[in-house]
Specification:
The protein is α/β, with parallel strands linked by helices. The chain has a single domain, classed as Rossmann fold (3-Layer(aba) Sandwich), CATH 3.40.50. Helices cover 26% and strands 27% of the residues. It has five helices and 14 strands. The strands form four sheets. It has an eight-stranded mixed β-sheet with strand order 5-4-1-6-9-10-12-13, sandwiched between helices. A two-stranded antiparallel sheet has the order 2-3. Helix 1 packs across helix 5. The two termini are 16 Å apart. The model has no long low-confidence stretch (mean pLDDT 95). The structure holds cytidine-5'-monophosphate. Cytidine-5'-monophosphate binds next to helix 3 and strand 9. The site of cytidine-5'-monophosphate has 15 residues, from helix 3 and strand 9.
Length: 218
């Protein structure tokens, strides 16, 4: 029954880390593998959706012909692509681990070691999720992720409201086998009507749980 339940829908997905350049050979990044976002893109495409996958630098490849991949590197590039695409989408799923800070200036040459401390001043990046939440129309849906280290559910629920997500997927860091670089994940979904915990599963099964939830409100 759910085979083609997303037919005619256009889903925007952000995935992977961002790289923030320090100089021509160095960057600030994070451990996101992109696996969860790519699993979501495959799940949406298999269920009939057209997918635009805005991807930071990852070692993954897309298989399905209905996935259009846009490669970006920095938070700023991901932001520009996301605000351009979202108005044409029925829903957005914001799975990327976007850098919160980026170097204020990028050195044009490789920075040399000169014995002294190196100070790299960082400025905040744009919050892509919050920006899409602001331009979201009543006919559109928006799904976000959260990774918290304490008072997880309180922070996730606050984040959902602040960024105008229809629901938020909370990743657990406290469970073995969940989160960055793993093939499995353990999530809790929070929406305005409450909290649903899920067991530890392969990221592909987690993706289909998330898409079931999205499909029901699309
Ligand atoms: O505020 P926090 O980074 O914890 O929020 C996580 C959610 O917001 C995720 O869905 C993430 O993809 C998104 N996000 C974003 N742009 C940022 C930071 C986070 O889209 N600059």
């Amino acid at each position: 029954a759910r085979a083609e339940d997303l037919k005619g829908k256009h889903i925007l997905i952000t995935a992977g880390p961002t790289y923030e350049k320090i100089d021509p050979v160095r960057f600030i990044g994070n451990y996101s593998s992109g696996k969860m976002g790519y699993a979501l893109a495959e799940a949406c495409a298999r269920r009939g959706a057209d997918v635009t996958l805005i991807s930071g630098p990852v070692a993954l490849q897309v298989q399905h012909p209905a996935i259009r991949r846009i490669d970006v590197e920095s938070a700023e590039q991901m932001y520009q692509a996301a605000i351009r695409i979202y108005p044409q989408a029925n829903a957005g799923i914001l799975c990327a681990a976007v850098a919160d800070f980026t170097p204020e200036t990028v050195a044009s040459n490789k920075i040399k070691r000169e014995g002294e401390d190196l100070i790299v001043r960082l400025k905040p990046t744009q919050d892509i999720a919050a920006a899409l939440g602001k331009i979201k129309r009543p006919d559109q849906r928006l799904v976000g992720f959260a990774l918290e280290t304490y008072d997880e559910q309180i922070h996730a629920q606050e984040k959902r409201k602040r960024k105008n997500f229809d629901f938020i997927v909370l990743n657990s860091l406290n469970d073995a086998g969940a989160g960055f670089r793993c093939d499995t994940n353990k999530i809790t979904i929070l929406d305005e009507s409450g909290i649903t915990p899920y067991p530890l599963k392969d990221k592909h099964e987690v993706a289909s749980d998330i898409i079931d939830k999205l499909s029901a409100i699309l």
